[in-house]
């Protein structure tokens, strides 16, 4: 039974950390670079995972210092596509984008055989529904404590599946199933991403997001706790920037502008950030020596989940 795993993988709009900065919490970066907030003041796990890929970062952290250096050297050699001994911004940007694409491909591949029960190379809604909810459908969720939540999740999954299914035949091709699992990657799924975000945050059901709902999605105060400065900053962002028409609410268009800033290239920004933090001689490019000198920065950062990256000759750029 795959219900819990499915809920975890499909609720990509849900909160990913406690009290993370709001600008990182809901914004879709086209395959999140990391599960961690990007906050260098509290460590570099974001950058670590963006550079290595999340699963590779886990492996990397388990190596001895000498093994880590050897693994990093192999990775740097692969990033350096023109073999001039330097990692340029262009090469690093391409590498991070490559890890994004690989994460999405591997995530879809991981789920594909679980749902394609008749092995016809497609996934019908009935296949997905029965695999994910089948046991509970027979009981109408009667043995589930939060029955309403599971029924709502089924309705939401069906709506998203139908939107991903461009030819409306009730069957998802691999590309359509990718749009179902990763709607933020597809322009035609934009409205679904916005709708699900509003539903997640809109607690009073009026179809829009007020200030309290906006703040409540990212911060729950403890009794007697002083509101952190970053929350005050987010209140100001809501009033000054997010609420463009100044009516006190975020409507669909304003939510879309917030969470789907298509003009922002976060892989590009991260490449620039990694070079800024690691480029000792400030020539705008990195050497293996510079990266080794900043090994703690590489090993303790905060970026994403691009699937397993093996440096054994099998993972092709």
TrEMBL record:
GO molecular function, one term: calcium ion binding
Gene3D superfamilies: EF-hand
TM regions (residue ranges): none
Keywords from the named record: Calcium, Endoplasmic reticulum, Metal-binding, Repeat, Signal
Alphabetized SUPFAM superfamilies for the sequence: EF-hand
Domain EF-hand, chain residue ranges per copy: 67-102, 103-138, 152-187, 189-224, 266-301
One GO CC term on file: endoplasmic reticulum
Signal peptide coordinates: 1-19
Localization: Endoplasmic reticulum
First-listed, main subcellular location of the protein, grouped into a coarse class: endoplasmic reticulum
Keyword hit for Calcium: yes
UniProt family annotation: Belongs to the CREC family.
Name of the molecule in the record: Reticulocalbin 3, EF-hand calcium binding domain
């Amino acid at each position: 039974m795959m219900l819990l795993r499915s809920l975890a993988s499909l609720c990509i709009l849900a909160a990913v950390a406690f009290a993370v900065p709001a600008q990182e919490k809901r914004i879709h970066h086209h395959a999140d670079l990391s599960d961690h907030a990007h906050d260098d003041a509290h460590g570099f796990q974001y950058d670590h995972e963006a550079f290595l890929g999340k699963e590779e970062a886990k492996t990397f952290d388990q190596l001895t210092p000498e093994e880590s250096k050897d693994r990093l050297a192999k990775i740097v050699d692969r990033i350096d596509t023109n073999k001039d001994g330097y990692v340029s911004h262009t090469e690093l940007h391409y590498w991070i984008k490559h890890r994004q694409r690989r994460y999405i491909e591997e995530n879809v591949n991981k789920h594909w055989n679980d749902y394609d029960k008749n092995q016809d190379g497609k996934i019908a809604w009935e296949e997905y529904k029965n695999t994910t909810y089948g046991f509970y459908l027979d009981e109408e969720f009667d043995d589930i404590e939060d029955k309403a939540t599971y029924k709502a999740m089924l309705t939401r999954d069906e709506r998203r599946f139908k939107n991903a299914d461009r030819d409306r035949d009730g069957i998802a091709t691999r590309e359509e199933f990718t749009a179902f699992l990763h709607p933020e990657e597809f322009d035609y799924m934009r409205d679904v991403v916005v709708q699900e975000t509003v539903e997640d945050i809109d607690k009073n059901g009026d179809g829009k997001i007020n200030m309290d709902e906006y703040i409540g999605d990212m911060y729950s105060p403890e009794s007697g706790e002083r509101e952190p400065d970053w929350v005050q900053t987010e209140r100001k962002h809501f009033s000054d920037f997010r609420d463009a028409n100044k009516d006190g609410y975020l409507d669909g268009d304003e939510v879309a502008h917030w969470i789907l800033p298509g003009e922002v290239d976060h892989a590009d920004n991260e490449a620039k950030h990694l070079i800024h933090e690691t480029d000792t001689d400030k020539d705008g490019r990195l050497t293996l020596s510079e990266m080794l000198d900043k090994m703690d920065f590489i090993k303790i950062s905060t970026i994403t989940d691009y699937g397993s990256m093996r440096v054994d000759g099998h993972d092709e750029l």
